[in-house]
Structures are given as C-alpha cells and as structure tokens.
Amino acid sequence: MQKTSYLSIILISLSSTPVLAIDPPRFVTSSFPPLQYVNKERQSGYVTKMLEKIHQEHPDLGSVDIEFLPWKRAMHEATESKNTLFFSTSRTPARESRFQWISEISPYGQAIFSLKKSGKNTINSVEELIKNKWIIGVQNGSSMQEHLIKKGVPVELMLTVTDYKTSIKMLFSNRIDAVPLTYFLASGAACSLGFNHSKLHLNFQVAELSNPLWLAASLQTPKETIELYRHSIETLKQSGWLHNNTQGEISRWETYMCSKN
Predict the structure, then answer these.
(1) By Cβ atoms counted within 10 A, which residue in 1, 53, 84, 241 is the most buried?
(2) pTM of the full structure
(3) DSSP letter at 226?
(4) Kindly report the CA angle at 13 between 7 and 16, in degrees rounded to 5?
(5) Alpha-carbon distance 6 to 166, whole Å?
(6) How far apart are CA 235 and CA 29, in angstroms?
(7) Contact (Cβ atoms closer than 8 angstroms) between residue 145 and residue 139
C-alpha cells in the first residue's frame, strides 16, 4: 500500500510540472532602430532583447533568429505562414482579423516632420498637407500609408518607399516635403544617417497613430505559443524589466547616434 501511494505521489508531481510542448516560432520584421535592427551583423534593439530574454528563460525554445525583410513583405509572410511572430506593428482595424494579437511591446507615436527654413509654412493636419500639396514619403504597407489613404491623400502626394530611412534621405535632399517619424526617435533616426537632427521640424502628431506597437502572430500559430509569449511579456512588464530595458536602450541609442555627428 505504501509503495502504491509513493508511486502515485511521483506520478502526480510529474504531471503537474510544466512541459514545453511548442515548436519554436519563426520571427519576421523590418529594421526599425532602436526597436529591432542589425548592428555590425548582429541583431539588436530593445524589442529584440525582450525576445531574447524570453528565450533565455525558456531554453527549449532555442535562439531567437530574426528575419529582417521589407515591411510589406514581412507583413505578408506573417499573414500567410504558419507559426510566425511579427513585430513591431500597429494594431489597426484593417489588421485586426489578420493576426492573433499577443501583447503591447513598445510605446509609439507618429508625427509629420519637415525641414526648418524650407520655405514652406507649418501645417497642422493631413487636410492642410493636401491643401498645400506637400509630397510625403511613406513606407509601403505601413499604418501611416493606410491612414493617409483613408484621409483622402491623393496618390500623387504620396511617394512610397520600402524603408523609412529612404524617406529621411529624400527629405534632407529636398526631394519631398514631409516624412512621418516616431516623434521620440526622430532625432536619433536623422543622426544615424549622418544628418543634423536640429533641422527637423515637427508639424503635428497623428493622434490616430499614437498607440503602442504590438507583437502579433499569424492565424496559424498555435494557442500554446500565443499564451507562452503573452504570459512571459506580462511577467517582464510587472517586474519593471520591460520599461527599464526600453527606456535605457532608447536613451543610449539616441545619445550614441547624435554624438557621432
């Protein structure tokens, strides 16, 4: 009787131990410093470090191997592929049914920038952008492109690019009139390309696109995978690790980029 009871205790204990039974997911995104990017042939960024932290705490997941693709292609891959995680993306009505939404992972806020002393007046809305016939460089497949189309911006006023860095270069070479940038990363983004960030002028913030960015998953991603990452990120939020990592990386990145110029 005692042997039977002892065996039962062992079986109960084993059955209550969490067992990782998920396949490591595929990660796709587009370069967006300092969230996720490649630095000296190594993946970096504060969102990248968050994912690596999760994998360190779950060794059976293996390493985090991120595929950096043009934004529109990354979104397509995440829409069509199985067991695929996609970041850092805005959660918009048009995208709601295309993904499983795991967790907010980064602050975000878009603003429309132009150059100071460019001979053009400040604008305060998309409607004024249209009225003044400003040409804006916008990333193809982005939430900003969706927003501008919804607001009725004519095609001839939108110059689409595969990477936001191209828009910044075009702005500083006076080939376009405006560029949408994350307002708290704009200075570092300009500095990273060798431009003087003090020449940037913030015209207005786009309230509709001032919401946190998300980690999303393809519809064919198992629920167990979704819950593991959701729970892990929530734990990092509650401990304060996520906030401290984000703010620290943003500050270090901007200081480093602008100190080189």
Answers:
(1) 84
(2) 0.82
(3) H
(4) 140
(5) 68
(6) 23
(7) yes
Query: What integer pLDDT is reported at residue 117 of this predicted model?
Result: 79
C-alpha to C-alpha distance for 174 and 114, rounded to whole angstroms: 10
Mean pLDDT score across all residues of the chain = 91
Please give the average per-residue pLDDT across 199-206, as a whole number. 96
Read off the pLDDT of each residue in 214-240 and give the average, rounded to a whole number: 98
Structure tokens belonging to residue 68: 């950096």
- The C-alpha angle 36, 40, 42, rounded to 5 degrees, equals 50
Give the integer Cα–Cα distance in Å for 137 and 166: 8
Determine the Cα–Cα distance for residues 115 and 12; give it in Å rounded to an integer: 67
β partners of residue 43: 38
Are β-strands 110-115 and 200-205 bridged in parallel, bridged antiparallel, or unpaired? antiparallel
Higher pLDDT, 226 or 4: 226
Helices (H), the chain: 2-16, 46-57, 71-80, 126-131, 143-150, 164-172, 186-192, 223-239, 241-259
Name the β-bridge partners of 104.
214
